[in-house]
Amino acid sequence: MSTYPRAPRGTIAPGKLFTDQHSHVAQLHGVGIQRFDGLFWAWGEDKSAGGTFGGVACYSSPDLATWTSHGHALAPDPGVPDLAPGRVVERPKVLRNPDGRYVMFLHVDSADYAYARLGWAVSDRPEGPYTYLRSERPLGNISRDIGVFQDDDGTGYLMSEDREHGLHIYRLSADHLAVEEIVSTTLAPPSDHPAGQHGYESPALVKADGLYYLFGSDLTGWATNDNKVATATSLAGPWSEWADFAPPGSATHDSQTSVIVPVHGSDAISHVYVGDRWIRDDLFHSAPVWLPMHIGGGKAQVEWRDSWTIDPATGVIA
Predict the structure, then answer these.
(1) Which of 102, 177, 205, 212 is positioned for an S-S bond with 149, CB 3.0–4.6 A?
(2) What is the rounded distance in angstroms from the CA atom of residue 310 to the CA atom of residue 65?
(3) What kind of architecture, by CATH, is found in domain 29-302?
């Protein structure tokens, strides 16, 4: 029997593993989450192969707590070099483009993290299977941890960690299948990073009351740190100073940002902080840390709760 604690099905319990309809550990690592037609969809790194590519696992949920597995949305493929065993494929994120197709973005890398490319895959269904298209360095820049964002007008954006130059926000083409330009690049304070490294990794972006909130994690390898948030009235900036959104010194409750999920309900617009605790020697059992997040007035703050739920219809957290 597993010694790793599991959350009761239908409940979010930070530091405890989610399970699916078969009582298997849900592989929601480095996850991307979207809500399509009233249902939450999640694409996570399947860590059954440890640090190398084990597939992109897909799940659906009515409430962010009760997960149904749909198998692999994108499976390992020895015939495709980017998806072959031994490759690193991380941070799966999905957007639905104006044509109704689902576009998956991936951090595609080699085992030594020197490849540093952005990958694309597409499907007609959120659960896939996705058809892998290609990888590239966007506009020639290295690309590791990624996040995605779709603005009110449908324009898609990619956030990408380029430690040589900073955290880039790219504008995507109308079909989301190409990178068109850098909208802005943000830097971390020099004191936060080793010499020659800039920006933040594990980026996430949300918009609330006309203000953009950009989240990221310091470059501290497998060790957790105090993740940060910056704000701007335009994606082009200027961006505010970076600030803590969890208690200083808590290392973001010992987690790293993966995505921030807005839940638009009839009574409230709530936000959910979705983070990971990485266990380097047992990535399969690395625990999620998902918490209510209060966003507004230029500030963001996570609230620790041992166990909680959210009503997707009303947006009310209990």
Answers:
(1) 205
(2) 8
(3) 5 Propeller (2.115)
